[in-house]
Amino acid sequence: MKTMNSLRPVWHKAGQLCLALCVTLGSTAAMAVNDLKGGPAVNQIDLHPPVTQIAMDQRTLHYGMMFTCLAIFIAVFGVMFYSIFKHRRSKGAKSANFHESTTVEIIWTIVPFFIVIAMALPATKVVVAMKDTSAADLTIKATGYQWKWGYDYLKGEGEGLGFISTLDTAQREASDSGKPAPVDDYLLKVDNPLVVPVDKKIRIITTANDVIHAFMVPAFGIKQDAIPGFVRDTWFRATQTGDFYGQCAELCGKEHAYMPIHVKVLSAADYTAWTLAKKKELAAKADDPNKVWALPDLIARGEKVYSNCAACHQANGKGAGPIKALDGSPVVLDADHAKQISTVLNGIPPGMPAWKQLSDTDIAAVVTYTKNSWSNKTGQLVQPKEVAALRK
């Protein structure tokens, strides 16, 4: 590791110089947005600035391999072009007449072998370190949905917390309208970021509810597929506080571009304060499932919960393409509440995810909201105990 650390500044500076030479010279118009700290930069051509040791090692390997290959390329083609030029026929050169050379064959076998070994050893060391998820301070399950992320804190400080992280509604609407918002975090802003403490080993367990997704945060040097029915894991240890961004890196459907990852790294004290506040917030939402709600109160709450649904069904309930409309839907209008409740609880593969992670009250509220919004003026009221009775 000491050797890699000593080479890192050299490879980094050389890499930046090489990449800078690739940029087209000329004037450019002023950009509407700026570089996003912890996220993508305008006209970015380099890797993200690393904030974990693994990401630093990956960067060192990247430049080391690139310049090793570049040196081999220059040496091989340099000899070849020199030979062609020096011994060209127009200068009267005559080709040598020989059958074989044992010395040459030994050299071109041994030299590449040692080059490959020299490249493989540090790469293997980094790969092994990337896969070592043992002794984690905090374990979080990241579940991919079409198209959002669910986070459940399984072990460590904050254990028991869980929430859904969805793309900011305003940015989604801006994208749908074809008028991108001139902000630095366009299509990366979420309502609930993943919050972790600095200088702690964070284990991320990935899985998916519907199709294959991938959890990727470039600044951490992590990318792990999230596969339905399977669990995979990765880890990171952020060395600085701040906001860091990623996206689903697996083509997961038409809303693939709308499931960003926002990780907020806090100091130990700030993280503790966040976990306490979050637990109080969740406790306040832990309603009695036997409580009898009034229609206006459930509709008001359901409107907030519906933000999870609006990404697909749209704010006006009209749906789009294969996404069925809720406005005027026979299932929504049906007096048999069990039909819609079961759909929300269990989903309809492949497009409609299951929403069992929502509380009974939240599901009752959103179902009531859809039954009484837009043209659906049914007057029907769904109580939380109806949802609780249908859970499997």
Characteristics:
single chain, 392 residues, alpha+beta, five-stranded mixed β-sheet, 10 strands, 41% helix, elongated
Largest sheet: 5 strands, mixed
Sheet with the most strands: spatial strand order: 3-2-1-5-8
Q: What share of the residues does DSSP label as strand, in percent?
A: 15-25%
Calculate the terminal CA-CA distance, rounded to whole Å: 51 Å
- Shape, principal axes of CA atoms: elongated
The helix-and-strand class reads alpha+beta
User: What's the helix-strand series?
Assistant: HHHEEEHEEEEEEEHHHHHHH
Helix content: 40-55%
Cα gyration radius (Å):
28 Å
Number of helices: 11
Mean of all residue-level pLDDT scores: 88
Instruction: State the total count of DSSP E strands.
Output: 10
Low-confidence stretches: 20-31
